[in-house]
Amino acid sequence: MRRGRRHFVNSRPTPKGRRLRLGVSSCLLGERVRYDGGHKRDDYVAQTLNKYFDLVPLCPEVAIGLGVPRAPIHLVGNVSHPHAVRVHGPAVDVTAQLKRYGRRMARAERDLSGYIFKSRSPSCGLVRVPVRTPKGPRCGRGIYAAAVLEALPLLPAEEEGRLGDPRVRDNFIERVLAYRRWRDFEASGITAARLRAFHAAHKLALLVHGPGHYRALGRIVARAQRGEIKNLSQAYGRRFMAALQSPATRERHTRALTMAAKTLEPRLGGRDRTELLAAIRAYRTGKASRGTPLTLLRRHLRRFPHPELARQAYLNPDPLELKLCAGQRR
After folding, report:
1. CB 96: neighbour CB atoms within 10 A?
2. Residues of the domain holding 119
3. In the chain, is it the N or the C terminus that has fewer CB atoms within a 10 Å radius of its CB?
4. Which residue ranges traverse the bilayer (predicted)?
């Protein structure tokens, strides 16, 4: 039986220009670390994302020394606080080891910008992980995944299975990039004025996820002007990342695009104005991709600079978002 090496990739601040780092369940990259000696290689993760991110392979079951091959484990007990025990042979409980490794990983890899977990795994699953309870089968969360996200609650996380949905995939990439912007913002020193500027720059990005989120975050910013900056900035970060998990809709994208168009409208000639509004209508009715009006808006902004719109993250997406998000092309 092969014994697992307990390893962490060294965590350093990400230098400018260096690729962002994602934690990934090792089996999704084709590593033969599963209990039966197999893997669960996922092409989108192993091929597509590997072109743009530094992927950090992590397998908690191997890391705590269970080896390959090994007796499988499953979750039993209270669905909110299950235990991970060996399925066959003497009952061996590895709950504490998995939690401890999750906390250690979170400390060692604080520079991760996101994490892709293996679905339905008793250690790594995020949702719908089978739990055997006294009242019958229930669904819970893997022990290791729960420990990681308890230590890093803002970290964007997804399962490989859900990434097959283009909308989930786009949302994950959006959250990864937004999380990195927030972490960089925190690292550069938060003041009330800078928090206000960050909020203003994400106005359109937040509105497409729901205007209620933008207003709630605005109230936090207003309170921060009175000097409670440290705690309120943490509250802002939590609410900001939670807001981005709310699904964006075509209707709200249309409103955001229209808002930007109306801001620029006085500077545009009749032909440009007609073309832009027609592109937004075509997107609203599903006849054109969102990328069409966005491209026009960015082109007009280069010709007619507008300070407020120029700072909008929504109108100036990261190059990775343009490459990886189908929504930019839908």
Report:
1. 12
2. 21-164
3. N
4. none
